[in-house]
Amino acid sequence: MTATTISPDNTAILSALGPTYGLPWLQQRRSDAMELFERIGLPPVTHEDWRLTNTAQIAKINFSVPGSGTPLTPEQLAGLCLKKLGAQQMVFVDGKFSPELSSPGGKVEILTLRQGMEKHGDRVQRFLGREMPGQSNGFSAMNLAAFEDGAFIYLPPDQGDMGLVHLLWINASHDQPVVVHPRNLVIIGSNNQITLVQTYAGFSSQPTLCNAVTEMVVGKGAKVELIKLQRESDTAFHIANEAIHVHEHADVQSLCVNTGGHLVRNNMTVHLAEPFAQATLNGLTLAAGDQHIDNHTMLDHARENCPSHELYKHLLGGRASAVFRGTILVRPDAQKTDSKQTSKTILLSDAAVMNSQPQLEIYADDVKCTHGSTTGPLDDEQLFYLRSRGVAAADAGALLTYAFARDVLLRIWHTGMREYLEEFVAAELHRLHLDQAES
Amino acid sequence: MALVEIKNLEAAVGGKPILKGIDLTINPGEVHAIMGPNGSGKSTLSSVLAGRETYTVTGGSVLFDGKDLLDLSPEERACEGLFMAFQYPVEIPGVTTSYFLKAAVNAIRKHHGQDELDAMDFLKMVKEKMALLEMDKTFLNRSVNEGFSGGEKKRNEIFQMAVLNPKFAILDETDSGLDIDALKIVANGVNALRSPERAILVVTHYQRLLDYIVPDFVHVLCDGRIVKSGGKELALELEKRGYAWLETAAA
Questions:
Q1: Which of B94, B134, B217, B249 has its Cα between 20 and 30 A from that of A264?
Q2: Do A388 and B78 touch (CB under 8 A)?
Q3: How far is B74 from chain A (nearest CA, A)?
């Protein structure tokens, strides 16, 4: 790579390093990341990976680190809480761990990243920044330089079914633009089973930038379900970089649900690092107004006999736009790879835009990789069939969009989460259809 | 009073005239059969009556139970008691048959100012109708028509007719793609639904279905017009002689 001689002009957003807790290695990683960020800045639209998501508007806003915002109401919290599903829950408000709102007790030892550095110092030092290094892009560099806190989960091997863990990140209401850099590190020892849910929510009418990084290692034979629910306010910029390292015979299923945010970018990278590791990446995006939601996935098949499946669905109304770019990399050692990628979109308005791009890079010769993409309005024949049975046109549309979305939700392994999201998505679709009716 | 009164009905698709003046009166309790060669306009007539928007009505009128049918949306027609069994039933992945039927039943009940049916009553009613069509128990939890065989799809249409209890049912080539056993099940279902209040219009290419659903009247459609009407014996004559002699008469 050629070094740029001119510094980008969009680096003012990062003003200070995060705390170093007297750890020289952390000090070093942070200052390296800061230096890198000052050189590369926020990704420009001229960068192939960011061609369809323009971060220039983020650079124009004068974000600051949040002071105390408007206290959250019990109603706001109740809608986000998963305690009724028996979840161990960790809540962060404006990037700071909130012990009074959290209930981390249970089978899994959940710590803050700061506590993790005290208790599992070597592990954190070993894994922090390994799966999602600063070099990946300007946002991951900025996160590494500036993150304040996050969750640290370490599950020793052979614990069995560890239930449901919920990491809830909330941006409270502020009277100025604020930025937070959540960072989570999750290490699942071999032969464990766990469901990990991340919710990102916000209540500010001012712009917020949530720049999250989650790194995860999944040990041999473990079975992990990851669910991310992004339901930030409609003034929010949400950028998430997630990376998962999957060991032999481990099975990872992820679902990324996006309903909120003004501009959203999710980068999901999965390294199928050993034979017989498998990954399923699903996504559901519901967008209206002028929302822009971009999902980039990268399935890195490093070794042989790893199956992977992807299903990303989008329901777009208003002037919403969405991007799905799914890269499947099959390295020379990844013989017998079986990979299937599907992207499906329903456009509920003429002005909505979908951009779907499969990207297959195959360097092995005995593999099966398929991809497919469909985009279009609701099916006229299906609509007429429902109407001919008495169902009003608007209700028929709602029923078909719900069925379209539900198809993804039915794949969720965790029963409680499946029901929770079916209800949530039904309510969001109702809102989407009301928006359509008004516009 | 006639239940359905079609007068000089004309319809076109993409500017091309298909129906060129249909007159047909159907009374409650009657079963009428519309027969005709391919391209005569049989399915167009069904679609126009059900309200499919790909067809443009260019002339004439249809009174249904005293109301101007052509003025109603497809869902209003259904709520008023019109039902069409589709020639090609549509698959709706992700919507279970049970959810679909509940939505339909309750939409129609709402139209008539009735409360929604409670879950127990709904299930009881639906199970009775399933027995009538010899349907498998798993059927309610399967997505509408998804992965159904041709016979299952057609049985599902008649099952829906039984559940929705229409005043006027149009069977659009319900016999197409059915083997003899499936045909018998479907015909038995339809016959069980014959009643003095209900009229049925059977649209078919072949006489075979009419051995099992015996009509009161038979009409022959050629080139967008009814060229001959008669009793059930007309169907047998068509079986013997084909349509050619009538097509010549129409031309």
A1: B94
A2: yes
A3: 5
Give A400's contacts in chain B (Cβ within 8 Å): 92, 95
Contacts 24+ apart (CB under 8 A), A113-121: A113/A147, A113/A149, A113/A150, A113/A151, A113/A152, A113/A183, A113/A184, A113/A185, A114/A19, A114/A21, A114/A149, A115/A152, A116/A152, A116/A154, A116/A185, A117/A21, A117/A23, A117/A26, A117/A152, A120/A152, A120/A154, A121/A23
- CB-based burial of residue A4 (10 Å sphere; 0-12 exposed, 13-18 middle, 19+ buried)? exposed
**Taking chain B, what is the end-to-end CA distance rounded to the nearest angstrom?**
34
ipTM exceeding cut-off 0.90 for this assembly: yes
Query: Does B78 contact chain A (CB < 8 Å)?
Result: yes
Share of chain B above pLDDT 70, in %: 98
Q: Taking a contact as any Cβ pair under 8 Å apart, which residues of chain B between 81 and 140 contact chain A?
A: 83-84, 86, 89-90, 92-95, 99-100, 103-104, 107-108, 111
**Digit-coded pLDDT (tens) for B41-81:** 999 999 999 999 999 999 999 999 999 999 999 999 999 99
Round to whole Å and give the CA distance between A231 and A207: 14
Over 70: is that where the pLDDT of B249 sits? Answer: no
Contact (CB<8Å) A395/B89: no
CB contact under 8 A, A399 and B52: no
